[in-house]
Amino acid sequence: MQQKVFKVLEFDKVKEQLLEHVSSTLGRELAEKLAPSTDFAEVVQSQEETDEAVKVLRLKGNVPLGGIFDIRPDIKRAVIGGSLSPHELMHVASTVHASRTMKRFIEDFAQEHDALPNLEQEAEKIIVLAELEQSIKNAVDDNGEVLDSASETLRQLRNQIRTKEARVRERLESMIRSSNAQKMLSDAIVTIRNDRFVIPVKQEYRGHYGGIVHDQSSSGQTLFIEPASIVQLNNELQGIRIKEQQEIERILILLSAQTAEHSIELEIITKVLGHIDFLFAKARYCHKIKASKPTMNDEGRISLIKARHPLIPIDEVVANDIVIGKDFSTIVITGPNTGGKTVTLKTVGLCTLMAQSGLQIPALDGSEMAVFDAVYADIGDEQSIEQSLSTFSSHMVNIVDILGRADYNSLVLFDELGAGTDPQEGAALAISILDEVNRRGSRVIATTHYPELKAYGYNREGVVNASVEFDVETLSPTYRLLIGVPGRSNAFEISKRLGLNERIIDMARTFVSADSHQVENMIASLEESKRQAENELQEAHDVLKNAEMLQKDLQKQMVEYYDKRDSLYDKASDEAREIIEKAQREANAIIHDLRKMRAEKQTEIKEHELIEAQKKLTEAAPKEKKAKSSALRKTNKHEFHPGDEVKVLSFDQKGHLLKKVSSDSWEVQIGIMKMKVLVGDLEYIQTPKAVEQRTIATVKGRDFHVSLELDLRGERYENALARVEKYIDDALLAGYPRVSIIHGKGTGALRQGVQEYLRNHRAVKHIRFGDHSEGGIGVTIVEFK
């Protein structure tokens, strides 16, 4: 796409804001190269990558991106045998450490939360170079200084240096503490010049110490002298320092060679870290502008929900719904100049460029964007002083260029089409240009203040009028886009509000043709009707939302009621059972004692009397209470089967039997709820006709029953759709009013395929996702006609 379009739509400013969020020069380099892609698969991939980074930031809040350096020049120099400095080696070790940290971070996130296919794939490319990192860190500290521990030789040399330095300092300090030193020295200190220890001696006493003069003060009154008595010691110290430097060079060459051995791995690490930094920079920017991921298509459809211009502060910008490419391919925004029309053009154009660059767009979830081969824009007053072109000529040069390039997969934006020349000719040119671009199949949004174009949207197929709302009461635009409503002139109303004499306004009205007056009234009526419809729609949404909340609350209370009821019943049954068992144990003990007494001849008790006593004790034991509907169980002679339609007596609701849970209870589906119900609480209504049909019995077998659920998890896409088709036929034959299809969440491909099939099925009345208790978006509930 042309750089000129980027400038006109201010895409470069978006990139400048993006650059504020990079963490390394590697990420900055990629952000500076950011450009829209025209490859659909590439755009989808880029959007997925950004969305994963957004997800990580949302759940973690931060990402370990510190310590990343551009080490590519260092790697190249090491490969050709160059020696890296301690700071460069520290940058290598820091980058290796950052890659290891990032790899572990992504892997841990994928285990704790959701999978990150793209980021995990990037993390897999990172080769852990722990040995190289440790070798460098053992030799170089964070400040780029070579450590004593780099080698045993270096440790010994530095110990010798410290010993020699101590001896030199001791010798010099004894000199400056002598009685004559105070008058001969400018200051009683030991300092260093040219890497040799010296003392500051006054000019007139330079011959007292002898030795070598290394420096003098700016005034020449102080000389920095190395006394003759320590020259030898300083020479020995310098000799050891030279050996130290040679050892340091040897260590750096070894580490540089080790770095060169891993040059390929380091190049990969650098590339991956730069890409990851770039992704999280996009994620942070999207979070800042409160953006969301759009659904991409390659069919030219744009559907923006509450879209905002990303360069206007959120608390100032007005969000708009903008749709094009489905029912109409051209939008003509008419009405007076208020500023809102141009912002609308730039919002659509900028959101398109952002989406095709892998950036999320400043709009609500559910927005849809298209991938265009090109975006063309003629916006703003581009009068060319250099070419001595007027505003009209400048615009016409751009339009001629656009007409030479635009095709069926182009997005074309015209601002004030035909302006800058005679109104009648300008309007005619605008209509002709729009016809030409529309004929080529391009998606077009044009703004104009010519009243002649208000009728254009009604006379052309695929064209719709729009306008930016203007509040006459406040004499200012609201910047709300009204699609389907052409703009109308507000000159009379504004003049009246500003105090112009009504006699003059009435006279002006007489000069306006009856047709124009009628059109303005029609537009005013359309605006009012649209506002009223939007208000009623919002009220309906609010009522629906409240109803859904009440339904969920009621369902939750019903589930809690049945759970509590079952719990109390089970508890009561357990207590009654314990009482019965206790009574029986006591009865048996009594009988046992009586028999023992008889055996010992203490009393005469006949066996039939013992049996009678035991019978009475058994009858006296507490009886286990049954459900209040136990009487019904005796009279209910029907043998239940899965799929039977029954009535739950305690709740007075109809449902269908799903499966037998135990000998005295069934799982019943009432509406969207499933619950366990005792047999005594069930009243048989009927068996679905399809189960009784002889044809079904012949084909399926006598014991065949259709389940109210179809589980597709783990199935391949083609097999799953084949199972759905067969299952829907079986469910319809069984006479079920609704069924559930379990497809799981996964990538969403199976869910979309299943729902697309169901929407096109002639017998399906309605489909929806399951509630939280039914499995959420992993389940689709199907209602039949």
UniProtKB/TrEMBL annotation:
Alphabetical list of SUPFAM superfamilies matching this protein: DNA repair protein MutS, domain III, P-loop containing nucleoside triphosphate hydrolases, SMR domain-like
GO MF term set: ATP binding; ATP hydrolysis activity; ATP-dependent DNA damage sensor activity; endonuclease activity; mismatched DNA binding; ribosomal large subunit binding; rRNA binding
Superkingdom to which the source organism belongs: Bacteria
Annotated Smr domain residues: 710-785
Keywords on record: ATP-binding, Coiled coil, DNA-binding, Endonuclease, Hydrolase, Nuclease, Nucleotide-binding, RNA-binding, rRNA-binding
Residues forming coiled coils: 147-174, 516-616
A Pfam family annotated for this UniProt entry: MSSS
Top-level EC class as recorded in UniProt: hydrolase
EC number: 3.1.-.-, 3.6.4.-
GO-annotated biological processes: mismatch repair; negative regulation of DNA recombination; rescue of stalled ribosome
Ligand binding (ATP): 335-342
UniProt cross-references to NCBIfam families, sorted A to Z: mutS2
Subunit structure: Homodimer. Binds to stalled ribosomes, contacting rRNA.
HAMAP family xref list: MutS2
Role this protein plays: Endonuclease that is involved in the suppression of homologous recombination and thus may have a key role in the control of bacterial genetic diversity.
Annotated family: Belongs to the DNA mismatch repair MutS family. MutS2 subfamily.
Protein name from the UniProt record: Endonuclease MutS2
Species of the source: Bacillus benzoevorans
Gene name of the record: mutS2
